[in-house]
């Protein structure tokens, strides 16, 4: 199956699965779930394509085992992110921008975490970029570990199993198999909708602040989460 690359060719799900197989997939899921360098990886489209390739016998691997391993990789990835955030702490908010690190990504994840609390670990799974930084922010804020692991497991299973099974189910439909490029584009568009909404809201707030007068600038970014803030949630 040849899919339309939704970016550089080496980020095309079909290419990644052909080159690295299921174990390369697991490494990507782990990296995107909790390593700072993994925010750009194509998690949603990769899981969907995996389910589709398995159900059409183009990827020789048991579907049930792939789902189990994907969920484990996602959960362990978030665990690594949490431990990293707990170790680094507020210093993460002072780290300078680089080619692979943008302070605005940390700010977005922090706002998302502050808005939704522990359940953000579940919701963030379905939002690119935010899903990479949210477990790190949970560690920075010293979220109670029992709450973290509970929502981490729930989110990892819903995302890992849900998106993969969606690909497997839709892969049985001839129309989907014949229009896989369009399906992958649709998945990417749906996954970035929350980001677009937040961007539009931010622009609206900036315009309102500008209209209010020169002294009322845009809302400053949130301060680093205080340790223990979510300890009782």
UniProtKB/TrEMBL annotation:
Q: Which Pfam families match?
A: VTT_dom (PF09335)
GO CC, one annotated term? plasma membrane
Please tell me where this protein is predominantly located: membrane
Give positions of region: Disordered: 209-233
Q: Quote the subcellular location field of this record.
A: Cell membrane
Q: Does the keyword tRNA processing apply?
A: no
Domain (VTT): give its ranges. 41-168
State the UniProt keywords alphabetically: Cell membrane, Membrane, Transmembrane, Transmembrane helix
Q: Which residues cross the membrane?
A: 20-41, 61-85, 148-170, 182-200
* Topology in the lipid bilayer: Multi-pass membrane protein
Family in the record: Belongs to the DedA family.
By what name is this protein known? DedA family protein
What species is this protein from? Streptomyces odorifer
